Amino acid sequence: MASVNDSNNPGTGSRGSAFPVDRPVEALIRDHNLVRKLADKYLNSDHPEVKKQCATQILQALHMHSQLEESVFYPAVRAIDPGMIAHFEQDHQQVDDMLASLRGMSLDDQRTDGLMRELIKMVMDHVQQEENDFFPKLERAGMDLTQVGLQMAAFEANLVHMQAQASDQGMRRR
Ligand SMILES: [Fe+2]
Ligand SMILES: [Fe+2]
Fold it and tell me: Does pTM surpass 0.90?
């Protein structure tokens, strides 16, 4: 399981190191890079087990990252460019819909690969836009992001904690 250390190490999320509270954008870029790496591995593997494992990790990473952006980051930085943030939120909605469909599908299903590829393309375009169009704009605005970073770290630690609890309960039920 990818989340084996999460309950002992709250706040690290899937990034594997402490949340950089004074540079929250860096944490988001690290998430993007993790998804890029997993997507690359998914797309370039012919091994069903490897693909399954990558797909599961991509879904988990995206779920966590989306919630962090939607609940804390986007509201905090909306004023920088409300139109762009609204556009990002629409992208997230589309990605969330795809994630919901994928969760109900078997990874052995032939159609899953097509939808995974569609999801990856959509996500890659979205993260590219965040990194190329929005993050530089935010940087130029010179906003102090420490408060946002602290909120993001707390939100993520809480999510990780809740997930660990949910998986504990799931195990006890089995
Ligand atoms: Fe996003
Ligand atoms: Fe993002």
Answer: no
- Classify the phi-psi angles of 109: left when phi > 0, otherwise alpha if psi is within -120 to 50, otherwise beta: beta
Query: What's the 133 CA to ligand 1 centre distance in angstroms?
Result: 12
Tokens 């929005």 label which residue? 134
CA distance 67 to 62: 8
Q: How far is the CA of 171 from the centre of ligand 2 (A)?
A: 31
Fold classified for 19-166: Four Helix Bundle (Hemerythrin (Met), subunit A) (1.20.120)
Q: How far is the CA of 168 from the centre of ligand 2 (A)?
A: 28
CA–centroid distance, 66 to ligand 2, in Å, is 7
Gap from CA of 69 to ligand 2 centroid (Å): 7
Q: Report the C-alpha gap between 136 and 44 in whole angstroms.
A: 31
Instruction: Give residue limits of the domains in the chain.
Output: 19-166
CA atoms of 115 and 30, how far apart (whole Å):
24
**What digits encode the pLDDT tens for the residues 80-129?**
999 999 999 999 999 999 999 998 888 778 899 999 999 999 999 999 99
Work out the mean pLDDT of the chain and round it to a whole number. 89
